[in-house]
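pinging the channel bc i need a second pair of eyes. not urgent but kinda urgent?? the chain im working w is below, pasted from the shared doc
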Amino acid sequence: MIWLSNVLHLSLKELRCALRDRTMMGAILVSFTVAVYVVAMGAKSDVSNVSIGLVDSDRSGLSMRLRDALRPPMFNPPVEMTPQAAQVAMDEGRMMFVITIPEHFEADVQGQRSPVVQVAVDATAMAQGGLGLAYISEIILTETMDFLRVKNFDSMLPTRSLVHVLFNPNSTTSWFTSIMQVINNVTVLSVVLVGAAVIRERERGTIEHLLVMPVRPSEIAVAKIVANGLLILVAVGLSMVLVVQGVLRVPVSGSLTLFLVGTGLYLFSLTALGVLLATVASSMPQFGLLAVPVFVIMYLLSGSGTPSESMPPWLQNVMLLSPSTHYVRLAQGILYRAAGLDIVWPQMLAVAGIGAAFLLMALLRFRAMLARQG
């Protein structure tokens, strides 16, 4: 009871310090409101308003038909240009696609001589380049078959694909990017907030005040974890309700309460990691340099940006030691697929176990740091 009482009072002290830090509170406010909205509405991997050039050497009815089929919102109206101008536009990055229609294209199509339509792609925009090429190929095939009056071409093939899009039937990008942005903000701010709290005590000299008080190192460390984790958890809950569901109209299929429970476990793990990193660094600049690679690795390899299945098997196994991998899986399972506790409990257990290991290492390092400080 004495330990819990000390943690409670120290947590209240940490909350008061955090709430008085206007810079940090402003960063939390912007990260879970403006940043979520801007990323959800602006960051798109699908084909939208893509620039496209057209080198039409045929000037026939079929080539005009292909040009008119490339319409907004996926493609901007094609810009007709010469081959030389098209090459310069590709080199300068002004055109993502350039379609070259050869001479006698319509005559060769009618004579079944298999003419070739060249599509040049700027693959520096990898996602839009790959999707756009698939769309353009489908448009060219469909328009050519209609021109030849070949109706129901798909029914003439020996096989036919039947696609069912689950959980996001319209492939709306904001449904994915908004929630993933919330998860990324949790990862960054939880580590920074608790790490800054530890280093702030040391740089301001208030750590000596704690050393003369009848409190244990574990009570000091756990109080920082509880206070800063609670602050981020409240921000996540408000962001999900007000921004993600309210402003962006993203449907949440599962239990928001269960998601917040999983978020609390994830915050426990990351704040413990933040304390651990803060005990290694001796100043705030060092802490920043140490924390940035951790953020980048956890973001890029957690599955929030790219699927984990696309990574090498050995890297997938290594990333199982990261709490972000399990948190992304449980968040996607709960919010997108309406998974319950009976499905996501392994991920929640893994996050809690990794957090316990981080906390143990952080307490050992924190006790050693206080001993040197004293």
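so The longest helix spans residues 341-373. and The chain is about 65% helix and 5% strand. — does that match what u expected or am i reading it wrong
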